[in-house]
Amino acid sequence: MSKEKKPFYLTTTLPYVNSDLHMGHALEFVRADIIARYKKLQGFDVFFNTGTDEHGMKIYEKAQSFGKSPQDFVNESFLKFKDSVKIFGMDEEIMHFVRTTDEHHIAAAQDFWTRVYNNGFIYKKNYEAKYCVGCEETKSDSELVNGECPIHPGRPLETIKEENYFFKYSAFEEKLLNFYEENPNFIVPDFRFNEIKSFVSRGLQDFSISRLKSKMPWGIEVPGDSEHVMYVWFDALVNYISTLGWPENKEQFKKYWVDGNPTQYCGKDNTRFQSAMWQAMLMAANVPNSHQML
Question: Residue range 148-169: average pLDDT?
Answer without folding.
Answer: 87
